[in-house]
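Structure tokens please, single chain.
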Amino acid sequence: MSLADLVIRGLVADYNVACGACGTRFRRSGLRVVRREEDVWQISARCPSCNLMSLLVLKVDASGLVSEIELSADEQEKFIAAAAIGADDVLALSEFLAGFDGDFRALFGASATTADAERRPE
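Here you go.
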């Protein structure tokens, strides 16, 4: 684990980032850096009380302060109530991606074409 990963885990713990389901603060030991793109970090967090796994997306500014990019209450409720991803889901996605040619316009059909037309200035 890099020094930056350790610092980010410490900042998350120090800023009292808590579980969206039960409100318990995450502990350093339950945090793992998943990905980093410039100043945005993705961290998996396991709640020490309810054992729920969460994905935190954090932005760290030059002073080192962490701001959590939060979901709305409706979004949190939707994801808490959603069924867990299972092995069959992973297999289905893998099979889909094996044959996917990358054409999102064809995948989403007319809705993508309509959205593109609405964004283009006349």
